[in-house]
Amino acid sequence: MKHTLKYGLVTIALITMLQLQAQQHPYLFFTKEKVSLLQQRIKNDSFIATNWNSILSEANELLVKGDARAKIDYLSLAYLVTHETKYAAKVKEVLLRLCSMSTWSNEEMMRRQPAWNSDLKTAENCWTVAIGYDAIYDRLSADEKKKIVEGLTRMGIKPALGDWVWPDTRIHTLNSMGHNWWSACVGMAGIASLAIMTEEKQAAEWAATVARSMEEWYRFNGDELQFKPKTMDRDGGMYESFNYAQFGFSEFLFFKLAYTNALPGKPQPLIKELENYANWFMHASYPRNGEIWSLDFGDTHRTVSAERPVKLLYALGYRNPNMLWYISQVHNNQHREGLFPNMPLGLVYEPEMVNTPSLPSLPTSALYHDMDWAMMRNSWEKDATLLAVKSGYTWNHSHADANSYILYHKGEALIKDAGNSSYNTKEYPAYFFQSEAHNVVLANGKAQPKEQQYNGSPLRGELTELMDGGHIKYLMANATGPTAAYFTRNFRHFIWIGKVIVIIDDVKALQSSSFSWLLHPGGTSKKIAGDISIVQNNASILVRPLFPETLVQTGYDHDFPEKMKLKEITAPKARDPQNPTEIHYQVEYPEEVKQTKFITAIILKDSVNDNNLPQIERLHSETMNGLRITQNGMVTELYLNLLADGRIMHLNSINSFNNWETDAYLSAITYPEGIKQPTPGNITGYFVAYGSFLRNNGRTVFNTLSKLFMIASIKQNNLDLILQGQPLINASLYLGKKPVTFNLNHKKQEPVFSGNELNIRIAP
């Protein structure tokens, strides 16, 4: 009894303290300080004034027509800035109408067992009433406040917290619904609770409960039994797609900002990783002349921007100049969800942009290990080249697209994701969600089982070993897990060398199969000799299949039965009622085999009429497939060791080609054009993927006990070395001459030599 009494007194004290800490209305978003600052900026800043006039014009129009409920923030801000009661009267009309309804629950959701009392519509109404109530609080009578608080509590807050949080009635769990709906439904109920703290004694406790549950949502680490991914990547980012990441994360941040404004003396759970989240949005974006694009893996669209969560992070104090750069790239209204400066919250929280950098200070490549997304680009300039790869889990809005990729080049999406359609169409589950709609390899027309749309993927696809050495970039993708129903081996390697991106697919099926290499072009495409040409405006690439065979150079496929065949597939086109279908390609190997290697080169053209193209020569022996790429006065020889593909367990995969001996799965050397015999004295670059040694005519050039991943770039007196693959590494690299400067894994180091042999040690 004493403990119960003590707990009750502490709870009452906490609630009282929170209520005392609350400021006077308005205190959620349009605080008195923010509105006062906006009024000053309207007078002194023409950009702010122009956008304010746009908002005021919209508010005036809402007085006579339009959906005032959906744009309650326009009317609310108009009242707070101008103090004209006509805007407050319209807000009051909306609030009283909403709060006089019998329920906000969705009829379809209520028919479920158990009934879902709260959904996104409930959350939306919580937001509407909270924003309006906070803004016109001084224009409401005691009876009107009582009616609004009662309706908001009965139809919004209690159904949401009852379904999602409260222990005695909760029907949802983070394992089943811990995605964007959680932050929306719970977060908006939390904002509604904050709005009515001055009238409802329990509201402060409800808000505190939401704060604790939102931290659990953010930190949810996934589960093994139902294959649910963790909510957030350790470095920022959310697996559900760019669209649902920006939505779900924004709902979380809206609550966090409202809580901070309403209860400035009450600390919230500290989540240091939030500062990384803006970087993920930037890495997953593509600056171009026009609207900035985003990666469109899953249920999203490339015009979706992350301006809203980036601005909210900035408002919460997580600030760096890169965020200003990103905000400056976004166009007003380029997507329906945003905090654009011509929208009320966007204008109020528009940062000062005077110190905006011209380019972000971010690496050109990034790998997100938990969600298995990777991005590689040649520059942060507009209309550069961006290669993005996805693997990871299939769950909710994340499609069956393990190992798929997207290529943006010269401002266009030249190799694309097929997209999506409305969820109630037959095309969405039958096509857009499935492997066939993505740039993957199929065995007998299959990759990931269709049931993964509803059951998830029990084994994740993985992206590892990203290396960005400037002249060479590398990434390994492994989709064996998600495709294990049909594949026993499904690796994809990306090697980006200058104007050539080489894709190597190392695949093995459970049984002899017909393998197909899928390509979804994003422009006008056609076969030209052995290439597939893709052109969109002034952007152009050539896709050249090279192994296990090339395409037929002419149109007479029947004369060359051993060559690969290019098959056109007509499939649904995303969200284009006037043109409901489009063409994509299958590059098909004519024989049924159990195991094979596809090697494909993507040639990046500087323009449609670019004739300065790399020369690519096929290299082949019984135990090796390779390429010799000549471009801009340099030659790169790339070798795929066929003995190193897992076919031998206890014997090392030692192989020899062109005076080189190695056990590496992939290896490459780069040297100036015209040199007949490359040696360590004239080689300017090395690349090794999964190798422990590299020898040239008996001299050991690279050595380590375990198979590692390495890129070495030798320029004049400088050596840049990337070395990874194990936590403890003792390695050596022979050099023709000692470098003056040495960078190891992008950090300057003091080199340690034994003669001309560089000794490297990396320890945990």
UniProtKB/TrEMBL annotation:
Cell compartment(s), UniProt: Cell envelope
Range of residues in the leader sequence: 1-22
Domain Heparinase II/III-like C-terminal: 363-525
Keyword Signal annotated: yes
Highest taxon, organism lineage: Bacteria
Any Gene Ontology CC annotation: cell envelope
Gene3D superfamilies given in the database record: 2.70.98.70, Chondroitin AC/alginate lyase
Keyword set, alphabetical order: Signal
Domain Heparinase II N-terminal: 67-333
The keyword Signal is assigned to this record: yes
Record GO terms (molecular function): lyase activity
PANTHER family recorded: CHROMOSOME 1, WHOLE GENOME SHOTGUN SEQUENCE (PTHR38045), HEPARINASE II_III-LIKE PROTEIN (PTHR38045:SF1)
Name of the protein in its database record: DUF4962 domain-containing protein
Record organism: Filimonas effusa
Species classification: Bacteria, Pseudomonadati, Bacteroidota, Chitinophagia, Chitinophagales
